[in-house]
Design brief:
Layout: H1 2-5, E1 9-11, E2 14-15, H2 21-34, H3 39-47, H4 55-66, H5 80-83, H6 91-107, H7 113-123, H8 126-131, H9 141-155, H10 160-168, E3 176-177, E4 189-191, H11 194-197
Parallel strand pairs: 1-4
Antiparallel strand pairs: 2-3
């Protein structure tokens, strides 16, 4: 509601992070890089801002991939043959998404997980698409939260598959994540527990 009303705010804890689109989109892109045969991850990736395909194009592609009577698509779900199933107006975005996931697959287990997340955010174009929407731009901080989780996983030497497995249980869940996230600004409403607010001498506490 703060976001809808244009009231600036910050939350001290990340609650329900993976019930929001940004974190889920990053998760499914990482999952697709680890498990290329995962059709749910493929559908989520193609529907996300990485490709932004229509439901009709996605359904045509998924039906073709899952048809037991049809020969496998040579080159996989981002091949030239697969592209012919996509609406003409969406083929450029489809090719761009295919290049992004191919690059991510090359990075998997060769680059740090935090680097993979940063690639999706900056170089694969997710941040640019988010900032183009004034409402969605308020979710930009969610990247920092996911990136913090990736940095933690890197510090423990975990592979990307283990990181994806950890996030799987969080998708769609309202769990609170204990992440120490440095914030550049504390303007507006600050959402925190009474315990954390004690001693900060706020003029108003609700």
């Amino acid at each position: 509601f703060f976001r809808l009303l244009g009231v600036p705010y910050g939350a001290e804890n990340a609650c329900g992070l993976f019930s929001e689109a940004v974190a889920c989109d990053l998760y499914y892109a990482l999952r697709l890089a680890v498990y290329p045969e995962d059709r749910n991850a493929l559908a989520a990736f193609l529907r996300s801002p990485f490709a932004g395909l229509s439901d009709e194009s996605i359904v045509r592609l998924l039906l073709r991939l899952s048809d037991p009577a049809a020969a496998p698509l040579p080159g996989g779900p981002f091949s030239t043959e697969a592209e012919s199933l996509i609406a003409p107006a969406e083929r450029r975005a489809f090719r761009r998404a295919g290049r992004a996931i191919a690059e991510l697959e090359l990075m998997a287990d060769r680059s740090p997980i935090a680097r993979c997340v940063s690639y999706l955010w900056f170089e694969a174009g997710y941040r640019a698409s988010l900032l183009a929407d004034p409402v969605a731009s308020s979710f930009e901080e969610h990247f920092e939260l996911v990136h913090s989780l990736a940095v933690e996983a890197d510090s423990r030497g975990r592979p990307l598959a283990a990181f994806v497995s950890r996030l799987e249980g969080l998708v769609g869940a309202p769990d609170k994540l204990e992440i120490d996230l440095p914030r550049e600004s504390s303007r507006g409403v600050r959402i925190m527990t009474i315990h954390k607010s004690k001693g900060l001498e706020f003029p108003v506490v609700i």
